[in-house]
């Protein structure tokens, strides 16, 4: 085993321990109380997992992207909200690490992520853009003495109240067009968040994602120099869709595991008797395998072309990773609903070992995280011109 | 196939019609960033379709990306490349 592979194994070993011993233990309570999975995130910090993807030369774990995706799956399997918080943080780290472009400020920031295990949230959605991430209303102000600012109305900022820093999309300048965007990293000390409304959603309750008005003041070197349009196609969009779908696959897999445990328990009670639920479980397995196949293939295709950046910008590739998001976000709740069909009333009740209500509710958020309708609209346009898809 | 003034004029006309720019295409030089001039991703697809149609060519997937449709020069180079490959 190579040194890198051994380091990845160590990382995944600690993730599996945290998933089983911490995330799974608190999952129901976090869901019930809609509170941040503090215990699990603290454990992840202690294990250095928040900087797993930061290159070893900058003090991070230097883990491969595949391991990050596997970690999202493992955590999602134990607690959907924990998995999603971890996934979202990693998306921000991946975007910074892949677009450093020699910036000493961002290099230093990644060192701090590793040393201090800082948690990064993103502020991408915005009131008034119709859910289009490729457009911003808020803009970076004209800098005065090297200091710029923005004010952005975000309808949702996941774990905004718990993050150490924020990566925000804004227009490059006050006069810039809506699609002429940049990413700004602001620390929590530089960012004022005014909460808008409450957080009492159907699922993914532990992500604590209410709306905020975000105001930040920061030195101009905290603006990522690569335009957001490039970061989006080369990193943020494919990476988000891959890591989210690994979380959803993890949740759906746990729903399947619970159904399987239910059927086995029933079979033990009445050995030799026909079990209608066993047939449903078999049907469920084929639905889960479809989800797993799409998610695994998406990961492999990204890993194969991760360094072929021009290819990631091609419309055919954009379509491919958009489709991963749509397919996985629709299939995951389907699996969870079928798991409910296997378990029946004990699956419907929230306090049995076979409860899958949380899983179903958590995966129902999937189609809303960048609304599928919006992605379909983009794809419909790209399909008119792309050749091999 | 070289890039003639006629080709660029034709491309400019297409951008003017389909690019959804917030400024007149006449005010932009051949190297000006069309996205910064307000062309959305959706509008860029319409430009691509119109360019294919107007020059009777098909862009390969490797050419269908944002950077290729960034300005008049890059579009003209792409058209010339496809035509050159076809000769």
Describe this structure in words.
The complex is a heterodimer of chains A (389) and B (87). By secondary structure, chain A is mainly alpha-helical. Chain A has helices spanning 3-33, 38-46, 65-78, 80-98, 104-116, 228-269, 276-305, 309-312, 315-343, 345-348, 357-363, 372-382, and strands spanning 120-123, 147-154, 165-171, 181-187, 191-196, 211-219. Chain A has three domains: 3-118, Acyl-CoA dehydrogenase/oxidase, N-terminal domain (Butyryl-Coa Dehydrogenase, subunit A, domain 1, Orthogonal Bundle); 121-222, Butyryl-CoA Dehydrogenase, subunit A, domain 2, CATH 2.40.110.10; 228-382, Butyryl-CoA Dehydrogenase, subunit A, domain 3. Chain A has a three-stranded mixed beta sheet with strand order 1-3-4, covered by helices on one side. Chain A has a three-stranded antiparallel beta sheet with strand order 2-6-5, with no helix packed on it. The mean pLDDT of chain A is 96. By secondary structure, chain B is an all-alpha fold. Chain B has a single domain (5-86), classed as Orthogonal Bundle (Non-ribosomal Peptide Synthetase Peptidyl Carrier Protein, Chain A), CATH 1.10.1200.10. Chain B has three helices and no strands. The chains are: A mainly alpha (389), B mainly alpha (87). Chain A binds chain B through residues 134-135, 176-177, 179-180, 229-230, 233, 310-311, 313-316, 378, 381-382, 384-388, and chain B through 22, 35-42, 45, 48-49, 52, 58-62, 64-67.
